[in-house]
Automatic annotation (TrEMBL):
This is 50S ribosomal protein L3. It comes from Bdellovibrio bacteriovorus. The keyword Nucleotide-binding does not apply. NCBIfam families: L3_bact. Pfam families: Ribosomal_L3 (PF00297). InterPro entries: Ribosomal_uL3, Ribosomal_uL3_bac/org-type, Transl_B-barrel_sf. GO terms for cellular component: cytosolic large ribosomal subunit. GO terms for molecular function: rRNA binding; structural constituent of ribosome. Keywords: Ribonucleoprotein, Ribosomal protein, RNA-binding, rRNA-binding.
Amino acid sequence: MSETTQNTTASLKLNGLFAFKEGMATVYNEQGEAIPVTVLRYEPWFVSQIKTNDVDGYEAIQVACTPKKAKNSNKAEQGHLKDAGFENGAQFVKELRQAAPEGLKVGAQVSIDSLAAGDIVKMTSKSKGKGFAGSVKRWGFAGGPASHGSKFHRRPGSSGNRTWPGRVMPGKKFPGHLGAENVTVKNVEIVQIIADENVVLVKGPVPGARNTLVKLVRE
C-alpha cells in the first residue's frame, strides 16, 4: 500500500464494514451490568471499485485489505487494484451492497466510524469446521435407547420410501460435513467502537475461529 494514497484519501462512512475476530471479553455498562462481547480487530480497507447499475447490473462498493506479496499476485489483480493504492494484489477483496456516497473515489479509506455504539447490524462469518459428524451431532437427532440391547443408539434411523418412488429423497438429514459454512446472525448490537485502537465490540458470540473475517452491515 502506497503512503501517498493513505495520506491523501479521506476516510468515508459506509453502511457496514469488515473486521477480524479476536476473541471474547466482558465490559460493564453504566448500570454496572456485565455484557459479554466479542472483540473484532479492524484493519484499513480501501475502495477498489465502484459498481453501478449501468455497468454491472447492481450497485455495490468493492473494498480491499491487506496487501499481498508480489510473488503471490498476478497481473490481473495488480492492474485492478493499482488505482486503490496497492502495489500488488490484496488478500481480501469484498463487497458492500449499497449506493455509492456522493463524491466517492477509488482509493478512499473506509472509516471505522461507519458503525457506532448502539447500532443493530446483520453479522456474517464462516463457522468453525468440525469435520465429518453423525446425524445426532449434526442435526440434533434424539437417537435410540442407550441400554437394554436396543442396538439403535446414534444412527439416523429409517430414511427410505415405499415401492414408489423407491429411493431416498434429496435433502434428507444424514451424516456429513459439519460447520465451515457462512452463518448470518441478525439483530446484533454494537456495544462500543474504540477508534484509537481499531477495535469493534459486538454483543454476544460471533461464529468462527480467531482471525475469521466478519461482515457487519447496519440493518
